[in-house]
Known about the structure:
9 helices, Phosphoribosyl-aminoimidazole Synthetase, Chain A, domain 2, alpha+beta
Amino acid sequence: MNVKEFDLIRWIRRAAxxxxxxxxxxxxxxxxxxxxxxxxLVTTDMVIEGVHFAPGGATPREVGWKAMARxxxxxxxxxxxxxxxxxxxxxxxxxxxxxxxELVLGLLDCANQFGIRLVGGDIAATPGxxxxxxxxxxxxxxxxxxxxSGARVGDAILVTGxxxxxxxxxxxxxxxxxxxxxxxxxxxxPHAMIDISDGLARDLHNVLDxxxxxxxxxxxxxxxxxxxxxxxxxxxxxxxxxxLGDGEDYELLFTLDPATAGVLLADQPFDVPVAQIGxxxxxxxxxxxxxxxxxxxxxxxxxxxx
Length: 306
């Protein structure tokens, strides 16, 4: 790593904005912040070269954005607003100071857009791949959290945006749905919610398992992205398969009672569309195909294994 650790830390301290909510920021052994409410959300995620992006397949700035944005998406899925972050990076030997600064600027690009203050972290050199870990705090603003375990039989299953083909670029440049998550929490009170990181099918199963319910998913109503169609042309798989299993869409998947779902679908209050793609049932998980036939909905998608 052709970077001097303490020079970089001094530069980060100048580059990272602070405000009155940061009592002690970057430079001490720990940060001191003013929390906004009685309960605080906490999440953490890693981005690893060769796992979350191909070696040489992303700029340092894109990696920084993704590392922060993945965590913002998790806080949004709980109905919260992201507030404070710490970031740790293991930088490959041979990285330049310019590379390191670009990585930090990617973190700050995302943090600044979502009102987050970067208040600390750690830097190390590694002979292995680039690894960036972000831990993020979030504020529920007095509301209860929206959990995976709250789906109820009869609920509508809905999703923001479109799905599939994220490896064509979206997985590096997605915009987390914080505004949408906050609006849903404030105005529509979802029973359950999750962000789609591991794939629609797998993340829906995560909700079903936590809630001890089943689902019927309507294939014809799943919003397919243009990238899903492009990916299908290259892979020979269907766009639907890509939407179900590619993952890293970072859209919100949630359930609402049918009456509230009808209001939301009529309102369409967001910059991205909202679609109903199924309904919650007492048990089982079925995919209803456009011809009316059905098949089991397998939890296809991403799962880390050693």
